[in-house]
């Protein structure tokens, strides 16, 4: 058996593939960066791994765990490039995807909105006779011949993947399971998946969509995972490959192959898990994370170091009700474009993207972005990526002048400040949505900004929200790797029950959980989790009868859990919504078992470096409302534990730039995290 | 007045939108009736200190919401902790146009939210944005709370009493049969609720628990909105906020006015369309609109030539602000950063209505099904644009369809009100939208229906050939087939645009019509009157509902053959209709190019509109 002390985390980005190799016992880490190989990403994966092993002077056989966050499924879905997929559905319901919820988004104009194109066209949807009732009784047997015909028709029409979603399969999956067996018989070469295996919950459109997307990403993800495994084996790695899921946990390749759509939010989830682990290590358990990239920002609230889950998530225009990290995404990032039209100044959601990028990149972009505004105000050093990429402030100024300052008759500086204020405001709105709406006061939390652009905004956002503490991770631009190294194996098992609380006898509840425990046990076995590392948590999703939205209530330790459940539900309802409804009947909609297999977390690397005065590598004019001041530029790599300084200052490192405005006191925590505290006034 | 700079303006707009999103999320999560929580029939808005709607929803049917309250409760008498409520249609001059819609309205103050009095019901959500300097409020002498605006929550309550379950029935002959009427009342003073009033209201509902849950949800939502708006005011100051609202109103007004000028020449543009019937054997009823642009640039909308009011409940008490809101939504297409608000109505200088007409009925004319007249009105406004711009306008849509099924099942009373999607009109730049009900409203999932009501759905799909043919195809309606599982159930159906199908424009053909059929394909098959109530169905009966589509835009022969073929393969267009309307020949699942060219060579003369044949005017 390989030594389990050596861990590898691989993060494949559009441009670079980052490898982190870490000795779990000592915390010592080595990193390598290599150009990504989009045609076959596993090439860069192995090349980078080789480099990192070389740097560490270790052998592939010593590796105990290979962890990976993949964006393969995400990109296929967002770019509409899923495999040609056929959907087999219940007779009479061919247009389930086309109709959707018949909804037009609340903020879109009825007269100009266009319906997004579905991932499966109606010409590839096949109707199958056979019917279950809502309670799971069979009304009409499955027409097996029709299933076989559909497979052949689908193949003839060019389908490479097959998705099955039959009505009420969450109540009784027998037809789906039988049909799936037939698909595998008739077309063993095509990817096939059934909704009851992907997501056994009520609402046919959402379930059909999740299943269709799952089928559509299966061929590519399967190929991808197989290639990775083959290359790893060829390279002498004997350790299991674990992939990050949208729920913030990892799972083995077999689990991912079965339901690859679980990785749709793999990347953002890994970042959130990394932020949570880093904050816990720094002794800060209540945090709100803001992950700001080029085009969007993901915001997540974490209590007691625990990442919350939602089942009402989305990817692009599609609902995806799988358990995923509960975050809000908005279209505001470093590349967001500022524009003036009809007398209104707006920032985003349109983005300059990576190409041409912000005007200051000098790649042909001439419209102003958030990054240009930062540069004009002196928030960024003259060059990024350790000096590799020069920024052109004149282009930034010209773009802001022409597109924003001139139309409004404002000085360029004021226009730049305005662009940032508007982008910050959008993020503040989203932070309030994840905090206040969920019954929390953001002032009781620390803000953890990460992503390439996060640490430029952290202090400003915190100030707007009345938050007094900001925690900047040691490597804010590549936090995914930290998340991968910190993640546990995770899976959820749930059952739709729809039982009135009053009539849910403890015996029935216990029996339901026992069967979920059995499913979890099978999963633990498959993932080879040792008994001591297994843990499960029971959750009841409850609501007032006739409400449409459930609250997750932790399971109480009591012989009859019902009184405590009722109390817990009412308290949660009050906290979230400001009222409860005494006397109104309560219903348990779903029982959920959250299973985790603990993976030993590596020790944190110990940063080296000295005091702040030794880290100064230059200075820069910072243009504040109150006037221009000269701020030191500090090399973050030279800041050791305990180093302390006051804003204004600019911290540079390979993966991000941190702005410490006046009024903030900074100190490096022993973990390497930078703590910013608002000066008391 | 302190001027609000463009950056602050955008921040205030963003914060107001975020406040609306929070209110809406709270409503959706806590409301009890399926009408609100699944169908999402609710809206929010934010008003300035005098009551002008400054940030609305993208819904083109709002009138002056605050005005009716002010008539009874003077502004000077309002204070923190107040909450006002009404659903009175005639009493609000059509600000609310059927009684199921409840308006909850809270005046918002700076320097005195209701929370200290318990008015916010202990809502935790008042962290404040204390980090920012409260610019406007620091130097102002403190003289008690300053009113800075209003916040509205609006939602359709599924049953408020009246003639039939659901409170809306084609059989109503008098507005007093359409549920309890709440004139503008003060539901809370100093944060204390008049519980007697609420108990009276709930007692009038056939589903009092739902009604109570929905009321509490709506109250919590407006209190949340109150807290948010107060925070915005605390951050920027009352004067800056007031100026921001004024600018948002002025901006919308000037855009709408400029686009009206670009669209309509000096003189009078006319358009008329009709609804089929009032459900009581009368009709059609014609809506006649005349939009005049004077030499001086004034805009006058005259609807006085519209037919007399109907005995049945299809009368639309059209608040004079409604045409401006509707045209406002149309003209704000593609205008990122703008909001629909009272600036729309301000762009129209005068609206003329005739008392006793379908669009300004006399009390107590019944109003419950005014939705179908509303939908026809919206299309008629587009008709005006089409006439003025020679066809550069969306084609007509169908009016959304509603099916109500009520009865008793296993000892419990049930009411299933199913709002069913239709097709919308094709546009000069895109196909019409398939299967949409109306702004932001969702359908009931089949699995939800079967879990919640004694019905089984046998089919739910696109209604083939219901979208009007055109270079851009009209949106398709849907088919929904219900099998009744209750012993007996009473059915109401609401379908319009059967005798007067949705018109096509610029060469596009009209869209298809809807219908309701009982036991189709059996010897017992019968078609129900399109607008009717009281039909009794028994266990095992099947009701098939087909809904109409939208009109097409541009000549169908100009639609690329591949797009027509995709529609045929996808079940939107039948092969027969492809040949007949689009001149497309299909051979073995592929386009027969030669035959298609031959079919398309024989192309007749088109006129501006199409309704069962090309025409210059649809009625």
From TrEMBL, chain A:
Domain Hydantoinase/oxoprolinase N-terminal per the UniProt entry, residue ranges: 8-186
* GO MF: 5-oxoprolinase (ATP-hydrolyzing) activity
Gene Ontology CC entries for this record? cytosol
- A Pfam family matched in the record: Hydantoinase_A
The protein in question is named Hydantoinase/oxoprolinase family protein
Q: Which organism is it from?
A: Roseicella aerolata
Taxonomic lineage: Bacteria, Pseudomonadati, Pseudomonadota, Alphaproteobacteria, Acetobacterales
Q: Where is the Hydantoinase A/oxoprolinase domain?
A: 208-492
Biological processes, Gene Ontology terms:
glutathione metabolic process
Automatic annotation (TrEMBL), chain B:
Origin superkingdom = Bacteria
**Molecular-function annotations in GO:** 5-oxoprolinase (ATP-hydrolyzing) activity
GO cellular component terms? cytosol
**GO BP, one annotated term:** glutathione metabolic process
Q: Name one Pfam family in it.
A: Hydantoinase_B
Domain (Hydantoinase B/oxoprolinase) ranges: 5-556
InterPro entries assigned: Hydantoinase_B, Oxoprolinase-like
Q: Known PANTHER family for this protein? A: 5-OXOPROLINASE RELATED, HYPOTHETICAL 5-OXOPROLINASE (EUROFUNG)-RELATED
Protein name (database record):
Hydantoinase B/oxoprolinase family protein
- Tell me what organism the protein belongs to: Roseicella aerolata
């Amino acid at each position: 058996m390989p030594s389990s002390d050596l861990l590898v985390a691989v993060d494949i980005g559009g441009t670079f593939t980052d490898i982190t190799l870490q000795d779990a016992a000592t915390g010592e880490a080595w990193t390598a960066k290599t150009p990504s190989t989009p045609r076959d990403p596993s090439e860069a994966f192995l090349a980078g791994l080789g480099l990192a092993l070389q740097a560490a002077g270790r052998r592939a056989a010593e590796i105990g765990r290979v962890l990976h966050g993949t964006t393969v499924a995400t990109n296929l879905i967002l770019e509409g490039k899923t495999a040609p997929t056929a959907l087999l559905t219940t007779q009479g319901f061919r247009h389930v995807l086309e109709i959707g919820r018949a909804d037009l988004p609340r903020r879109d104009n009825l007269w100009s909105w266009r319906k997004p194109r579905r991932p499966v066209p109606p010409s590839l949807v096949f109707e199958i006779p056979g019917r279950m009732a809502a309670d799971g009784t069979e009304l009409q047997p499955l027409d097996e011949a029709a299933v076989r015909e559909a497979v052949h028709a689908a193949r003839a029409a060019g389908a490479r993947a097959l998705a099955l979603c039959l009505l009420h399969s969450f109540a009784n999956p027998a037809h789906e399971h039988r049909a799936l067996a037939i698909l595998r018989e008739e077309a063993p070469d095509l990817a096939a998946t059934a909704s009851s295996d992907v997501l056994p919950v009520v609402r046919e459109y959402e379930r059909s969509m999740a299943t269709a997307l799952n089928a559509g990403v299966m061929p590519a993800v399967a190929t991808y995972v197989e290639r990775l495994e083959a290359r790893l084996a060829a390279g002498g790695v004997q350790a299991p490959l674990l992939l990050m899921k949208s729920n913030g946990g990892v799972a083995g390749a077999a689990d991912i192959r079965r339901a690859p759509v679980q990785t749709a939010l793999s990347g953002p989830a890994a970042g959130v898990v990394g932020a949570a682990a880093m904050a816990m290590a720094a002794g800060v358990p209540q945090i709100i994370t803001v992950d700001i990239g080029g085009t969007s920002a993901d915001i997540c609230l974490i209590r007691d170091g625990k990442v919350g889950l939602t089942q009402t998530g989305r990817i692009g225009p599609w609902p995806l009700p799988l358990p995923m990290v509960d975050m809000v995404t908005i279209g505001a990032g470093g590349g967001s474009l500022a524009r003036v039209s009809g007398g209104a100044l707006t920032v985003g959601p349109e983005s300059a993207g990576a190409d041409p990028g912000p005007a200051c990149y000098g790649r042909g972009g001439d419209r102003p972005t958030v990054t240009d505004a930062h540069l004009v105000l002196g928030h960024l050093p003259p060059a990024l990526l350790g000096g590799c990429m020069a920024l052109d402030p004149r282009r930034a100024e010209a773009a802001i002048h022409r597109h924003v300052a001139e139309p409004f008759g404002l000085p360029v500086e004021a226009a730049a400040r305005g662009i940032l204020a508007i982008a910050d405001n959008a993020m503040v709105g989203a932070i309030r949505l994840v905090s206040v709406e969920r019954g929390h006061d953001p002032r009781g939390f620390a803000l953890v900004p990460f992503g390439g652009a996060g640490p430029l905004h952290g202090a400003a956002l915190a100030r707007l929200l009345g938050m007094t503490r900001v925690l900047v991770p040691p490597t804010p631009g590549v936090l995914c790797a930290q998340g991968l190294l910190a993640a546990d194996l995770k899976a959820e098992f749930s059952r739709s029950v729809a039982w009135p609380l009053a009539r849910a006898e403890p015996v029935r509840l216990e029996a339901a959980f026992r069967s979920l425990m059995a499913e979890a046990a099978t999963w633990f076995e498959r993932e080879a989790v040792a008994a001591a590392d297994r843990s499960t948590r029971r959750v009841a999703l409850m609501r007032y009868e006739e409400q449409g939205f459930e609250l997750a209530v932790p399971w109480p330790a009591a012989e009859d859990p019902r009184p405590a459940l009722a109390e817990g539900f009412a308290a949660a309802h009050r906290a979230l919504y400001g009222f409860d409804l005494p006397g109104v009947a309560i219903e348990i909609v779903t029982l959920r078992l959250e299973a985790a297999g603990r993976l030993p977390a590596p020790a944190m690397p110990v940063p080296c470096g000295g005091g702040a005065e030794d880290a100064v590598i230059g200075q820069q004019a910072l243009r504040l409302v109150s006037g221009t001041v000269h701020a030191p530029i500090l090399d973050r790599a030279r800041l050791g534990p305990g180093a302390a300084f006051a804003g204004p200052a600019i911290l540079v490192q390979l993966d991000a730039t941190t702005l410490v405005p006046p009024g903030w006191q900074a100190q490096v925590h022993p973990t390497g995290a930078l703590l910013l505290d608002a000066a008391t006034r | 007045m302190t001027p609000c700079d463009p950056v602050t303006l955008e921040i205030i707009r963003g914060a107001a939108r975020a406040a609306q999103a929070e209110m809406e999320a709270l409503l959706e999560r806590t409301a009890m009736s399926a009408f609100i929580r699944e169908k999402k029939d609710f809206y929010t808005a934010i008003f300035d200190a005098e009551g002008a709607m400054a940030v609305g929803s993208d819904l083109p049917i709002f009138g002056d919401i605050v005005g009716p309250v002010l008539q009874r409760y003077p502004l000077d008498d309002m204070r923190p902790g107040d909450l006002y409520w009404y659903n009175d249609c005639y009493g609000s001059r059509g600000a609310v146009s059927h009684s199921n819609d409840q308006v909850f309205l809270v005046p918002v103050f700076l320097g005195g939210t209701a929370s200290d009095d318990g008015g916010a019901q202990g809502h935790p959500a008042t962290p404040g944005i204390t980090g920012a300097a409260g610019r406007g409020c620091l130097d102002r002498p403190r003289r008690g709370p300053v009113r800075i605006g209003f916040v509205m929550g609006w939602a359709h309550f599924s049953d408020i009493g009246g003639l039939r379950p659901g409170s809306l029935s084609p059989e109503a002959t008098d507005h007093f049969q359409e549920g309890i009427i709440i004139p503008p009342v003060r539901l809370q003073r100093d944060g204390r609720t008049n519980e007697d009033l609420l108990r009276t209201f709930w007692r009038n509902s056939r589903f009092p628990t739902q009604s109570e849950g929905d009321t509490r949800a709506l109250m919590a939502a407006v209190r949340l909105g109150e807290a948010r708006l107060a925070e915005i005011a605390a951050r920027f100051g009352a004067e800056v906020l007031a100026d921001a609202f004024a600018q948002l109103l002025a901006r919308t007004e000037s855009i709408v006015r400029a686009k009206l000028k670009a669209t309509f020449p000096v003189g009078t543009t006319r358009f008329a369309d009709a609804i089929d019937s009032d459900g009581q054997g009368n009709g059609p009823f014609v809506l006649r609109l005349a939009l005049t642009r004077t030499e001086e640039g004034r805009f006058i909308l005259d609807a006085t030539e519209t037919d007399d009011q109907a005995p049945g409940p299809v009368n639309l008490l059209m608040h004079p602000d409604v045409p401006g809101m509707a045209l406002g939504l149309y003209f704000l297409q593609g205008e990122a950063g703008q909001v629909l608000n009272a600036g729309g109505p301000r762009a129209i200088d005068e609206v003329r209505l005739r008392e006793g007409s379908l669009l300004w009925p006399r009390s107590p004319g019944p109003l419950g099904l005014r939705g179908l007249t509303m939908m026809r009105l919206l299309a008629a406004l587009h008709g005006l644009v089409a006439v003025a711009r020679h066809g550069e306008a969306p084609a007509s849509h169908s009016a959304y369809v509603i099916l109500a099924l009520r009865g008793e099942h296993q000892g419990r009373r049930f009411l299933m009100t199913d709002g069913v999607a239709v097709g919308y009109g094709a546009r000069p730049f895109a196909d019409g939208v398939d299967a949409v009900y109306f702004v932001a409203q969702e359908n009931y999932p089949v699995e939800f229906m079967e879990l919640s009501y004694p019905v089984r759905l046998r089919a739910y799909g696109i209604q083939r050939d219901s979208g009007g043919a055109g270079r851009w195809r009209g949106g398709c309606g849907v088919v929904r087939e219900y099998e009744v599982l209750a012993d007996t159930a009473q059915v109401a159906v609401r379908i319009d645009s059967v005798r007067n199908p949705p018109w096509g424009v610029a060469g596009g053909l009209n869209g298809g019509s809807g219908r309701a059929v009982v036991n189709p394909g059996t010897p017992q098959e019968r078609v129900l009157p399109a607008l009717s109530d009281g039909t009794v169905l028994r266990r095992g009966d099947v009701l098939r509902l087909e809904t109409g589509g939208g009109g097409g835009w541009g000549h169908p022969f100009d639609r690329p053959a591949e797009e027509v073929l995709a529609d045929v393969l996808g079940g939107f267009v039948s092969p027969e209709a492809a040949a007949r309307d689009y001149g497309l020949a299909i051979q073995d699942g592929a386009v027969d190019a030669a035959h298609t060219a031959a079919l398309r060579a024989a192309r007749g003369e088109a006129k501006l509109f199409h309704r069962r044949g090309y025409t210059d005017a649809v009625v």
